[in-house]
Design goal:
Layout lengths: L1 E2 L3 E6 L2 E6 L10 H17 L4 E6 L10 H5 L1 H7 L4 H21 L4 E5 L2 E3 L1 H7 L3 E5 L3 E3 L13 H5 L5 H10 L3 E2 H7 L4 E3 L2 H16 L3 H15 L3 H15 L2 H12 L18
Parallel strand pairs: 3-4, 4-5, 5-7, 6-8, 7-10
Antiparallel strand pairs: 1-2, 2-3, 8-9
Helix pairs in contact: 1-4, 10-11
Length: 279
């Protein structure tokens, strides 16, 4: 287990569990969170050995959003710089946005396992995940509206592609709670469980099923879905055509067929280490 100020990270059989570990503060997002989270995801993404990420938390609540300390320090200082405030605030928001963008841009599929409250920045976080599981008592809120802010870290660009437009508007305009039943019916949650124990069990079973497939193929699926969501059908078809033309690997296909026929796990190549800089 790797320990950070805001997280515990456990690696096991090509699965990484990233655990928010500040239950006494409802796993609020402090400065440490915004520094540690992109570092953890970047390391996992660059190495290529992990095939699935499970994002979970401790205590009764998944995440209560941005910690008040951010408003009392960084944002307060920025507000005092009247002449340069717009530029400084833009830079600040970009840092927060990039810290969560890295989750969506990762080559590795991400399963979010959510219990209790998931509000504000916590909602931004799970919107950037690929698959969302929740407990019966979980609920979500675009809380920024009630705090006099327009949510700016990632909720709207992602949520409007995950649930119906009218529902996004209602949740945004009111800031009300969005419960697990609504979330499941709208398609935001893949499934709902009676408690966290059952949810995590299901998350690991799903992760094992995903990790049994070729990491390169799963990565390709994630990229194809992301591209197709943001482009026309014709553009999506052309993109997938080019991907398969360049990434076609007969060795992986043969291994997949053999593994299925022999009823065993496939012995697939791991993703290559990601090059991040020219040496």
């Amino acid at each position: 287990m790797n320990r950070y100020n805001c997280f515990d990270v456990i690696f096991n059989n090509h699965i990484a569990q990233i655990i928010l570990n500040r239950p006494e503060k409802r796993n609020s997002m402090t400065t440490d969170f915004w520094n540690e989270f992109p570092e953890i995801i970047s390391k996992i993404n660059e190495d290529g050995d992990i095939r699935v990420i499970i994002l979970s938390s401790t205590g009764p609540h998944f995440c209560s959003g941005l910690d008040l300390s951010l408003f009392q320090s960084d944002l307060l200082k920025i507000n005092q710089e009247q002449q340069s405030k717009p530029i400084l605030l833009t830079n600040y928001i970009e840092i927060l946005q990039k810290a969560l963008n890295i989750l969506q841009d990762s080559r590795i599929p991400v399963i979010a396992a959510i219990q209790g409250a998931c509000i504000g920045g916590g909602l931004d976080l799970v919107c950037a995940s690929d698959i969302r599981l929740g407990t019966k008592d979980c609920h979500f809120s675009i809380l920024e509206t009630k705090l006099g802010l327009v949510a700016d870290i990632g909720t709207f660009p992602r949520l409007v592609k995950l649930i119906p437009d009218g529902l996004v508007r209602e949740l945004a305009f009111t800031g009300r709670n969005f419960n697990s039943e609504e979330a499941k019916l709208s398609g935001f949650l893949n499934d709902v469980y009676p408690n966290q124990k059952n949810m995590l069990k299901a998350a690991f079973e799903l992760a094992k099923e995903i990790s049994a497939n070729s990491p390169t193929v799963v990565y390709g699926c994630k990229e194809a879905i992301k591209f197709s969501r943001d482009h026309t059908t014709e553009e999506g078809l052309n993109w997938i055509k080019m991907w398969n033309s360049s990434m076609f690997n007969m060795t992986e296909i043969e291994e997949a067929f053999k593994a299925k026929f022999e009823k065993r796990l496939g012995n697939f190549s791991k993703l290559p280490k990601k090059v991040t800089k020219i040496k």
